[in-house]
Specification:
Blueprint lengths: L9 E7 L7 H9 L3 H9 L3 H19 L10 E4 L5 E5 L6 E8 L2 E8 L2 E8 L6 H8 L2 H9 L2 H22 L10 E4 L7 E4 L11 E8 L2 E8 L7 E6 L6
Parallel strand pairs: 1-11
Antiparallel strand pairs: 1-5, 2-3, 4-5, 6-10, 7-8, 9-10
Helix pairs in contact: 2-3
Length: 246
């Protein structure tokens, strides 16, 4: 596998449609890349679709990381932080690589950068989620008010933009739901950068964050959060792949 270069001002987003990975020989190769704990989790899934998604997602992480290090995909080991976020355990000298993984029906995404907090979330906008019910339960008052001002025909799309942004920030912070969802909110407007505001319960600096919204397919909304500090914005690239193929 060719080793690629990545700096602390680059973010690569690699995505795969799990439905396009159906070659039994390729899936057997994927299975051989899982460690013992991953093998056990893989076997425990009841539904074939969930088992398949897990296999592809874990192989995606391993193969993406190996693009930036001279290390075979099967040799990575991982650990969970106290809130359950996966991080590189070994090799120790590769811990500067930071990654975030998200999956939904029809798409799996792995973001990777160096030395920066990063979070990615992707959602299938055709899902049966009750958008306004979720917004009323989880959004900050300013977010909910702004959502209600959006025309009906585009309101559901705006909901997914806001929801994925909130999830991406939570993942980047690595603190799970210990951060209250109604204590940070986003403003989205044409022609200006996405803005985040924090309530009194969250000690963070809005200027230290970069956010992006992307649409890797007509039915998928993706959001990225990067804790890039007060330096320039990161370069972001969206790249399609099939692990161990391209």
């Amino acid at each position: 596998m060719k080793t690629e270069r990545i700096t602390d001002r680059w973010v690569d987003l690699w995505y795969v449609d799990p439905c396009e990975v159906d070659d039994p020989r390729l899936l057997e190769l994927y299975s051989g890349h899982l460690d013992a704990a991953e093998q056990l989790r893989h076997r425990r899934f009841v539904f074939l679709r969930d088992r398949h998604s897990f296999l592809v997602s874990r192989t995606l992480v391993r193969t993406v990381l190996s693009r930036y290090a001279d290390l075979p995909p099967r040799d990575w080991t991982f650990r969970l932080n106290p809130y359950g976020r996966p991080e590189i355990d070994r090799p120790e000298d590769m811990r500067s690589l930071r990654f975030s993984l998200s999956h939904t029906q029809g798409l799996i995404v792995c973001s990777v950068t160096r030395d920066l907090d990063i979070g990615v979330d992707v959602e299938n906008t055709t899902s049966r989620i009750e958008a306004m019910a979720v917004a009323e339960d989880c959004f900050a008052a300013d977010e909910l008010a702004a959502l209600l001002r959006v025309p009906d025909k585009v309101r559901r799309g705006r909901f997914f933009e806001l929801w994925t942004l909130k999830e991406s920030y939570l993942k980047a912070r690595g603190l799970g739901l210990s951060l209250p969802l109604d204590q940070f909110w986003f403003e989205i407007a044409d022609g200006v950068p996405i803005r985040i505001t924090f309530g009194s319960a969250i000690d963070d600096d809005p200027a230290a964050w970069q956010f992006a919204l992307l649409t890797p397919s007509p039915v998928h909304q993706l959001a990225l959060a990067v804790g890039r500090g007060h330096g320039p914005d990161c370069r972001i690239a969206l790249r399609k792949t099939i692990p161990l193929v391209c």
